[in-house]
Each structure stands twice: as structure tokens, then as C-alpha cells.
TrEMBL record:
Pfam families referenced in this protein's UniProt entry, alphabetically: AXE1
Superkingdom, taxonomy of origin: Bacteria
Binding site for substrate: Y109
Name assigned to this protein: Acetylxylan esterase
GO BP, sorted A to Z: polysaccharide metabolic process
Acetyl xylan esterase domain segment(s): 30-295
Catalytic center residues: S190 (nucleophile), D272 (charge relay system), H300 (charge relay system)
Source organism phylogeny: Bacteria, Bacillati, Actinomycetota, Actinomycetes, Propionibacteriales
SUPFAM superfamilies: alpha/beta-Hydrolases
GO molecular function term, any single one: carboxylic ester hydrolase activity
Length: 330
């Protein structure tokens, strides 16, 4: 695998964080993080069955009228049926310019209340709200992160993260119907970064992906690290229910990343109180294709210079989508 490394070398000093958000890891140590060694023997068979189920669902797609919004982009609301008959809401967004690419756009654990704009020119994106989140409310799945992350955790097949990954395959099918023959990639951060890695492992219609501060990497390590994010709900739950560790083996984003062979841009953070950096880097270093790791000094927080860094990160992402193969080599 070819890996390009750029970005920060020193962690940001995050504001209003009462513990060390680096967890004692510097960049060199983080680059040594990788997937756990407890991958289940039937991992591929399990996900293959879920994918077959998801792709067999009748989408029953409902697409609203297109309306122009800021900077010439056009937006249409949509609803579609995903795995297990769950009805999902979201948007399709057309950026100005000749259509060049489709992007399935994930979101963080805050959900998505409105469509994301500012994608590269000539992009058509499908932006579904993950099952359970407001806009895709689902019986039995919590609508806030601390509940969603535990919903269905009793077994791999019922776990919310499995359904959420399948929702990205559903979005891909929608996009392929709206723009036949256009190359399709994936972009997502935090929750959407981890879920994107899980989906990408078994999605052969994506030619590239962007994962920012990805969650759900190396669960055995995550269960040892207190944090502000959804991982803490799982950690605390596991103290009384250690059996959940067997379920988490099926939804480890770092294990999934070892099956991702398309060009990828990953933006992990050196300091992050919500998604511990060792888990983020476990995903980044496990990606099996041409990979550009652009290191952020901080994530899920505020620090001096964070706005400038966010602008620069968007430049990196735009550069990647312009030519994913070339971007991983430069």
C-alpha cells in the first residue's frame, strides 16, 4: 500500500477539555495503531448476507421538486426504503457545473437537519439521515448518540451500526439511479467516518472515499478509553455486559478498513475528547489502498486556529475529489 502523510505534527491545545485528549499518544505512536486481532471468522459471510438483503429491498424512492439554494446549488428532498423496511429521509444536492461525480455524504452523530452544501462543482450528492436519527426516526433505535450507539447491540444483525452502514449502500443505489454511469465516492466524518469504513469494505460501486476523524476503530482499545463521545456509552455498558465485545467485533471500522482498496483520504486528529485518536488512526493506517493521511491537530473541539485549519482541510478534500488517484501520490 502507498501512503502519503501530511498535516499537523503536534496536537492542538483544546479549549475546555478536562483531560488529556491525546491519551498520551504522539504522532509516531498513533501511526503504529492498527486493527485489533479478534476479527470473527465469519465476518465476510455476515456482511455479505446483510448486503444481499439490503440490495434486494424495493427502494420505493420518492424525490421532491428541485429548488435552487445558495451559490446556484439545487436541492430536492427524498425518502427511500432501506434494510428491514426502514423508511429513510434526506436530500439530493446538485452543485453547479457539468456533472462529474456522485458522492454519498454521511454525517456525524448530531444527525443532519438540513442538506450539506459546498461540495465540489459538478457533484451530485445523496445525503440520507441514518436510521433512528431525526428525519429517519425508527422504532427501536435511539435518536441521540448515547441511545443510538446501544440500540440493538445484543446481536450483530440487530445492531444500529449494521443498519446504518447498509443505509449508505441504499444511498449509493439511489445515486446510481439518478446519475447512471457517473463515478461514485463516499465522504463522512466522525460517526459517518466509521460507518463509511464499514460500508466501504463491501461496496464495490465506490471508487474513492474521504473519512474524517473516523469513529469505531479498534473497539478493544476504545473500551479502555473514557471520552465525551458515544464510545463512552458503549464502554460503560460493557462493564455490566461484557458480552457486547463479541458484537463489536463485527462492526470494527479498522477491521473493515483492511478491506478497502480504493484511493482514500483520511483526516485523523492528534487530540480529540470525543473520538480517541488511537481509534481514528487505527482506521487510517489499516486502509489497504492508496491512502492520503492528512493529520488534523485537533478534532471535536475548539482551539486557537481551528477555523483556519478547517478551511485548509476543506481544500485538501476538494483536491482529493478533483483526482483521487493523483491526490494519494502527490
Amino acid at each position: 500500500m502507498m501512503t502519503r502523510l501530511s498535516g499537523a505534527e503536534v496536537a492542538a491545545t483544546l479549549i475546555d477539555v478536562e483531560f488529556d485528549p491525546t491519551y498520551g499518544y504522539d504522532l509516531a505512536a498513533l501511526l503504529e495503531c492498527g486493527p485489533p486481532e479478534d476479527e470473527p471468522d465469519d465476518l465476510d459471510a455476515f456482511w455479505g448476507e446483510v448486503r444481499n438483503e439490503a440490495l434486494a429491498v424495493d427502494l420505493d424512492l420518492s424525490l421532491g421538486s428541485w429548488r435552487e439554494v445558495e451559490d446556484g446549488a439545487e436541492v430536492a428532498t427524498l425518502t427511500v426504503t432501506g434494510l428491514d423496511g426502514v423508511r429513510l429521509g434526506g436530500w439530493a444536492v446538485r452543485e453547479p457545473g457539468e456533472l462529474r461525480r456522485g458522492i454519498v455524504l454521511g454525517h456525524g452523530y448530531g444527525g443532519r437537519a438540513e442538506p450539506g452544501l459546498g461540495m465540489p462543482a459538478g457533484t451530485l450528492s445523496v445525503q440520507l439521515v441514518a436510521r433512528g436519527m431525526p428525519g429517519s426516526e425508527t422504532d427501536g433505535i435511539g435518536s441521540v448518540s448515547s441511545d443510538h450507539v446501544l440500540s440493538g447491540i445484543e446481536s450483530p444483525r440487530t445492531y444500529s451500526h449494521v443498519g446504518s452502514a447498509a443505509d449508505q449502500w441504499t444511498a449509493t443505489t439511489v445515486l446510481s439511479q439518478l446519475a447512471p454511469g457517473v463515478p461514485i465516492g463516499y465522504e463522512g466524518g466522525s460517526f459517518g467516518g466509521g460507518i463509511g469504513a464499514l460500508a466501504a469494505a463491501y461496496e464495490d460501486r465506490w471508487d474513492a472515499l474521504v473519512l474524517s476523524v473516523p469513529s469505531f476503530g479498534n473497539h478493544p482499545l476504545r473500551l479502555q478509553l473514557p471520552c465525551r463521545g458515544s464510545g463512552n456509552a458503549v464502554r460503560l455498558h460493557s462493564l455490566d455486559h461484557p458480552e457486547v465485545s463479541r458484537v463489536l467485533r463485527y462492526v470494527d471500522a479498522a477491521n473493515a478498513a483492511t478491506r478497502v482498496h480504493v484511493p482514500a483520504l483520511c483526516l485523523p486528529a492528534l487530540a480529540d475528547p470525543s473520538v480517541p485518536p488511537p481509534g481514528q488512526f487505527a482506521v487510517a493506517t489499516a486502509l489497504a489502498g492508496p491512502t492520503w493521511i492528512h493529520v488534523k491537530s485537533g478534532g471535536h473541539g475548539s482551539w486557537d486556529g481551528d477555523q483556519d485549519e478547517q478551511v485548509n482541510d476543506r481544500r485538501m478534500v476538494a483536491r482529493f475529489w478533483d483526482d483521487p488517484v493523483a491526490a494519494t501520490r502527490d
